[in-house]
Automatic annotation (TrEMBL):
This is N-acetylmuramoyl-L-alanine amidase. Residues 307-316 have a biased composition (Polar residues). SMART domains: Ami_3, SH3b. Keywords: Cell wall biogenesis/degradation, Hydrolase, Signal. InterPro entries: Bact_Sporulation_Assoc, Cell_wall-bd_2, MurNAc-LAA_cat, SH3-like_bac-type. GO terms for biological process: cell wall organization; peptidoglycan catabolic process. Residues 1-24 form the signal peptide. GO terms for molecular function: N-acetylmuramoyl-L-alanine amidase activity. PANTHER family: N-ACETYLMURAMOYL-L-ALANINE AMIDASE LYTC (PTHR30032:SF1), N-ACETYLMURAMOYL-L-ALANINE AMIDASE-RELATED (PTHR30032). It comes from the Bacteria. The lineage of its organism: Bacteria, Bacillati, Bacillota, Clostridia, Eubacteriales.
Length: 844
């Protein structure tokens, strides 16, 4: 990872105000090229980068690219790499790659005219069975329809198939969101019109300008275009698409493909989708201005964020180091009864830490091991996640051997002795090798036995700075319901003592409390050996602006986040273009040489206060929306026409979506789904209880129901399902807000899953809730939909998921904030539940 040095000039007291000057080249990305000798080789190196194994592989003829251009969403849905081969026989390199990936299925993309039957024969020659399937149409348009039928979606992307760049621009986004790409032409082909008539998608996203896809060809047939993303040329269109859907991307990485020549890119689109990264297009020798601007605005310089799955302070695994093994004990003490001895080299999960002891399991027994005799391992995510190199961590240890420990010239007790390191000396661990640590002592570098080294966790010194313009509330507990102690002003710099579910524990003006992490930026590696600035001691007065003469300079070592993966060799994107991205060469385009605004970094320069920032950022009230009139919300009587105790004896589980570390979707006014689903759920609980039902909740405050040692989305969903399946409830109601990249989209959907064993009941419940809810809140009716949401497919009782309204739509976001609206949503759902119990399930 490339380092960029910044200078921070700051004044420090208890409260610190910081301003920075940034000097850096316009672009400074680290680069990784994914390329081979030819397009076949490039596809192979992309496959090697992204897949250790694959259940399905997609095979295309290397010159027949039009057939493959729309395949990204389909390939992404199967997590299948795309390989290229000549059409008459399987390329030997491709054969080797298939052997490595061990797929059970290979899908040939294209008819027997391009991928000859001999390919099928070749695929039968492996020593493991491979099923072969062929997908292909009469032409590229038809092929795209065949592919679309495999990833049905309410939304469809239309791109001109006569050239490739527009489809390519949309490919990664389409892959991430599983939206099919239909190839069309200036004159819409019959097959495309028929497909649209049959499927009636509710949203059409058109890529490219009127020149590429004229509106007339669609509107004449009664189809309306919900979104058109286009520009004057392929690069403007590329930037327009990427910018429009930028919320879909979940990484700082970027993929770059040639905008001139196509075959090197197709395999890369699936990898980009897998990484959840955008795919940008470039010229061969230079970066076109719209793309350059995107890259520059995307570039962040900041200490890399810790992903919630792998907090640095809580490694998930450890390796037993003593040669005689390590005792697993009943309690975290050497006097604890011994359960079993875990042999050297065993990797064990670390479940909990307590005063130098780790809780772990071995041989299905749970107990404690001494932390001193473990090497910490940073486990990476499972195989199907793109694996990213872990940040190098400085590990320190302390010598525990009474008579000191010998430093030897190789990792073995027969190695020559260089020097003896005394007991209690602190050393830096540079490397580890079979029970030996490499370290430096008295300027000699050598190896010491790990057995006599006690590891010291690196001090997790993390500082934060308040970004909320009107300050941030300090609360007694890590929740927006915690009592307010004080308000911490904007730009206050502080040390983070603890982190919990999106809240930081900090000290401010002799108070200790919690602030919402959302309005805090992380600042790392700030040395606090700087003198105090007495003028800023009074926290009520804003410190004087720092002056360069009197204040010390602090160097902050920050990294550019994200790597640019270049698809193809220097024949398609030259080394000059690469140097421009790395910041080693200048672009020749005037637009690229302009002054760009300062890089977005974790340290904010002083900004004028923003009026629209809410005062209580963790439970914000949205800015006034001119279209929204809260007086339109009239409270309805949920019990109108319903007898008393109508639901006596019924048990209903309500599942407020998201919560804790997972905010769910966010709206344009920075409101969060998790804060809307809970009040609706609580209102529903109230009504159901009044109607005599017993109500169970998956959560009743801002947290995840998961008790797993490390939060993941899957653990969260599993916990909800486990609660539903263990409580003998009659119904499971999950409450959510919808969200889409186009902020104009609005309305209410109710989902059920055909995979739920009670799918008939679920559908009946969904239909009842849809009807009563829409008539109560008057949103656009998006209907009942079938989708395999985890909480719907895995619950064993009738289950529905209500997408109340679109938080991404400013008007509906405002409604979702309104308490009358929330009450009415609850009333509508309640009446639907009542309808479910009192009307017969239709037979089909
Ligand atoms: Zn949701």
């Amino acid at each position: 990872m490339k380092k960029v040095i910044f200078t921070l000039i700051a004044s420090f007291t208890l409260v610190v105000s910081a301003s920075i000057s940034v000097y850096a080249s316009p672009l400074a990305y680290p680069i990784e090229r994914l390329s081979g000798q030819d397009r076949v080789g490039t596809a192979l190196s992309i496959s090697e980068k992204g897949w250790t194994s694959a259940d399905t592989v997609i095979l295309c003829e290397y010159a027949d690219f039009p057939d493959s251009i729309a395949s990204t969403p389909f390939a992404a849905s199967l997590n299948a790499p795309i390989l290229l081969t000549q059409g008459t026989a399987l390329d030997s390199r491709v054969r080797d790659e298939i052997k490595r990936l061990q797929p059970s299925k290979v899908i040939l993309l294209g008819g027997t005219g391009v991928l000859k039957p001999t390919i099928e024969e070749d695929l039968g020659k492996f020593d493991f069975p491979i099923t072969v399937e062929r997908i292909g149409g009469q032409n590229r348009y038809e092929t795209s329809i065949h592919l679309a039928q495999r990833v049905p979606n309410d939304t469809v992307i239309l791109a001109n198939g006569d050239d490739f760049p527009d489809a390519l621009s949309a490919a990664s986004f389409a892959g991430i969101k599983q939206i099919p790409i239909i190839l069309t032409s200036k004159k819409t082909p019959e097959s495309v019109l028929n497909y649209l008539k049959e499927t009636q998608p509710s949203q059409l996203i058109v890529i490219g300008g009127e020149n590429a896809i004229p509106s007339e060809g669609l509107t004449n047939h009664g189809f309306s275009i919900e979104t058109r993303l286009g520009g004057q040329n392929r690069y403007e269109t590329n930037a327009a698409v990427i910018s429009f859907v930028k919320d879909s991307y979940e990484t700082d990485d970027l993929f770059l493909a040639s905008g001139i020549t196509f075959p090197d890119a197709v395999a890369g689109t699936v990898l980009a989708a897998k990484y959840k990264a955008p795919l940008l297009l470039s010229e061969k020798e230079d970066i076109p201005a719209p793309v350059y601007t995107y890259m520059r605005e995307h570039m962040k310089v900041e200490p890399p964020r810790q992903s919630p799955e792998t907090p640095a302070t809580q490694p998930k695994q450890g390796k037993i180091t003593p040669s005689g093994g390590l005792n697993l004990r009943e309690s975290p003490s050497s006097s604890g009864a011994k359960i079993v001895t875990i042999p050297q080299g065993t990797t064990v999960p670390l479940l909990e830490e307590q005063e130098g002891w780790y809780k772990t399991t071995y041989d299905s027994q749970t107990g404690w091991v001494a932390a001193d005799y473990l090497t910490l391992i940073n486990s990476s995510d499972s195989d199907n996640q793109p694996v990213k190199p872990a940040e190098p961590k400085k590990l320190e240890g302390m010598i525990t051997a009474d008579n000191g420990l010998n430093l030897r010239n190789n990792p073995s007790s027969t190695g020559d002795k260089l020097v003896t390191i005394p007991k209690n000396a602190t050393i830096q661990i540079l490397a580890e090798q079979s029970g030996w640590y490499q370290t430096t002592y008295e300027s000699k570098t050598g190896w010491i036995s790990a057995e006599y080294v006690s590891l010291i966790s690196p001090p997790a010194k993390k500082n934060g700075i308040i970004t909320a313009a009107n300050g941030l509330n300090l609360r007694t507990s890590p929740s927006s319901t915690g009592e307010k102690i004080s308000t911490v002003p904007v730009d206050t710099l502080f040390e983070i003592n603890e982190e919990q579910n999106g809240w930081y524990k900090i000290s401010f003006e002799s108070h200790t409390g919690w602030v919402s992490a959302e309005y805090v930026d992380i600042v790392e590696n700030i040395k606090d050996d700087t003198p105090e600035d007495s003028t800023a001691k009074n926290p009520d007065t804003k410190p004087n602006p720092p002056s360069k003469d009197t204040l010390p300079e602090i160097t902050i070592d920050l990294s550019v986040n994200g790597t640019v993966y270049i698809l193809g060799g220097s024949g398609v994107i030259s080394s000059t273009a690469q140097s421009i991205i790395e910041g080693k060469a200048s672009s020749k385009y005037k637009e690229n040489l302009r002054e760009f605004p300062a890089l977005p970094s974790e340290i904010k320069s002083e900004e004028p206060p923003q009026e629209e920032e809410p005062n209580n950022p963790e439970d914000p009230t949205p800015p006034a929306n001119t279209d929204y009139d809260p007086s339109q919300e009239v409270l309805v009587d949920p019990f109108a026409g319903i007898p008393e105790y109508a639901l006596a004896g019924k048990v209903i589980m309500i599942d407020p979506g998201h919560g804790g570390p997972d905010p769910g979707a966010s709206g344009p006014s920075k409101t969060h789904e998790k804060n809307n689903t809970l009040p609706i759920a609580l209102a529903l609980k109230d009504i159901l209880t009044q109607a005599g039902a017993e109500v169970l909740m998956t959560r009743e405050d801002d947290r995840s129901p998961s008790t797993a040692p490390v939060y993941t989305e899957l653990e969260d969903l599993k916990a909800r399902v486990a609660l539903a399946n263990s409580c003998n409830a009659d119904l499971f109601i999950s409450i959510h807000n919808d969200s889409f990249t186009n902020s104009e989209v609005s309305g209410t959907s109710v989902y059920y899953s055909s995979a739920n064993p009670k799918n008939g009941e679920s559908l009946h419940l969904a239909s009842n809730v849809r009807t009563s809810l829409i008539s109560t809140i008057n949103t656009k009716d998006r209907g009942v939909k079938q989708l395999g949401f985890y909480v719907l497919s895995n619950t064993k009782i009738p289950a529905i998921l209500v997408e109340t309204a679109f938080i991404s739509n400013p008007y509906e976001e405002a409604r979702l904030q309104n308490s009358t609206f929330r009450q009415n949503v609850a009333a509508g759902i309640f009446q639907g539940i009542y309808g479910y119990f009192t009307t017969p399930i239709p037979k089909d």
